User: What shape does this take?
Amino acid sequence: MSFNKNHVSGQWCGRHTYFSPVESGPEPEPEPEPETEAALNVAPYKNAIKVTGDTKTYKVTLKALGGRWNPTLVAWIFPGSKQEEVVAALRSDGITVAVTGIQVEPAIERGVNRENTLDPSRCRCRIWNHGMGGQCSRVVRYGLCSQHASKISNPPIGWSFGFYDEPRPQFWGKTYDDKVAICPGDRNEGRTIPWKEN
Assistant: This one.
């Protein structure tokens, strides 16, 4: 009995033996490359954004972009209005940045904010109120009481605690949208304002 050793074509070889063709299975898919862990993480924090991660390595960059270090949160804090600018600047420097949970704040309508409704017969300025915030109780005709008007109109400058129909500012000496504001004499400009939750 003789056999044909060349059996790759799938033919009968000899009298009783059938050799099936050699079938090649599907090629294995290449293993996915592991994802690179982001060096910095950007997430919302109240009306601001916080940057966490390997912040020590990029301390100089974060400070140059106008960030403020918050030791309690172990994070760099930026005004919410600068979120796109900060992320774009970090990425342009070749820094890997993960962005989570950030949504653009809706436009604030005059007379309404996320906390309370403005009483149009009273001064627009927000008062400290033991860190809780509140609307100035003085009755006015043109938006501001005489006391607050004299402080913020000469020269024009933002009020320390912002207006009641706008988001709370996050830093002493800055408005919520990062413009210059009055900084109380007993506070350090640029430090985080310790607002309390309602």
In short: The chain has two domains: 40-99, 107-198. The first strand starts at residue 12 and ends at 13.
